[in-house]
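Reading group handout, session on sequence-to-structure problems. Before we discuss, look at one worked example. The prompt was deliberately terse, the way you'd type it at a terminal:

> structure Histone acetyltransferase KAT5

The input record follows.
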Amino acid sequence: MAMTTKMADASVEIVEGCRLPVLRKNQENEDEWPLAEILSVRDAPGRKLYYVHYVDFNKRLDEWVTPDRLDIKKLQFPKKEAKTPTKNGLPGSRPSSPDRDVKRKAESVSLASQVSAAMSVPSLPSSAEASQASVYPAVREAFSTKSREDEQLTSITTNGTTRRILPSQPGRKRKNCGTDEMIKVFQYNSPRNASGCLPPGEDSQDSSDGIPSAPRMTGSLVSDRSHDDIVTRMKNIDCIELGRHRLKPWYFSPYPQELTSLPILYLCEFCLKFLKSLKCLQRHLTKCNLRHPPGNEIYRKGTISYFEIDGRKNKTYSQNLCLLAKCFLDHKTLYYDTDPFLFYVMTEYDSKGFHIVGYFSKEKESTEDYNVACILTLPPYQRRGYGKLLIEFSYELSKVEGKTGTPEKPLSDLGLLSYRSYWSQTILEILMDLKSDNGERPQITINEISEITSVKKEDVISTLQYLNLINYYKGQYILTLSEDIVEGHERAMQKRHLRIDPKCLHFTPKDWSKRGKW
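And the output record:
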């Protein structure tokens, strides 16, 4: 039964499920009144507190608010659920609503990953359908005269496969291009012409219209939202102390219930054990011998190290790591069976030990070529290049394994931004380093880009579409690199100081399919 509260000043009864504008500060520190839903009501000394979710905002912004921040004049009460009629026209016994039915159907199919968008990828044509394609720089206007083309185009070729194509000239038949065919890469010394590029939103993997497939039975960490309830929609931990940092959780995490009422949850930064008080933590530190994550150190350069942790051999640490990560990942389910997973923890070293910065996990065996299940940079280390370093390390492991990889979907909003940025910089780096032979335009295929970078070819294609690099010209697909794209890439790479050095990686992949038990 829903808790209710009555505000004495307006004599308005507010119940869980009500919607109304709530005062909050935006990024510019200005007042705004977004619509919010009341998820819970609780008594505090002398007043009521309301837990609100801002509609169309990320759940990490949910918070407890005081009554003075509520706009009661625009209060919307929850709609009553209509009874579902049966086939004979009589009302059914189970209440339902159309909105809820649609929601349940969508939620019954589980959503798949650390930033929130389901990704659909363009289909690849068969080899019989494939034809030659080219990649050119962005066109200033239509390709009007041949002499003007030859002066301005410096060609690059890449295979682009896409379901959406630009309007063709009358009488000209277009063909799909295959990922094994050569694509020319062109560079223009002029700004991009948006009309000559494919829109990124239609067929890119960032589309959120499609419903992802059900989670796999092996080791998927895809969140099953059909079991969402009012408890898991609310943050249950107020503050976490981890080493020298205090973290404000963004989402629910299933820590023991008796710890959720504490003002601060204390974690050992080396073994991640959770404790209820500072005194308990101090006593634990006298007994804890760890000064780094358990497992094998497989990479070290400067102060940055990576440790490989087997979810079966180090079960307690892996479970504690998942509990911590769940505070900042909304689209993942926490499984206490960590056996099917490997965890790669990035640390920063100082005189006191190896301090956790972030991590990613991956399945020991993935039939879908996932090289990341969950990925997270802890909030104190965000916006410092560590997220991209984690992504780069995951692909470096894929290179050693001789595979192409992709992260498990969906990614969180922050994760999606990081992957988009990494894919864009990595692919542009390849294209801009291409050298022409005998005065010919340099050529490369989508498959070659995928093999060099270990980025799955569907991600390569979607990134080219997102960057609006794919054009159709004279019966073939071309990649066009404009001056603003080149300059933007160079500026971004100048800021990217942290890179993975393959020479510092000491990693031997294992064939888990030949092992009787993980």
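Points for discussion. First: The chain has three domains: 4-74, 146-161+175-200+424-495, 225-408+500-512. Second: The chain is about 20% helix and 25% strand.
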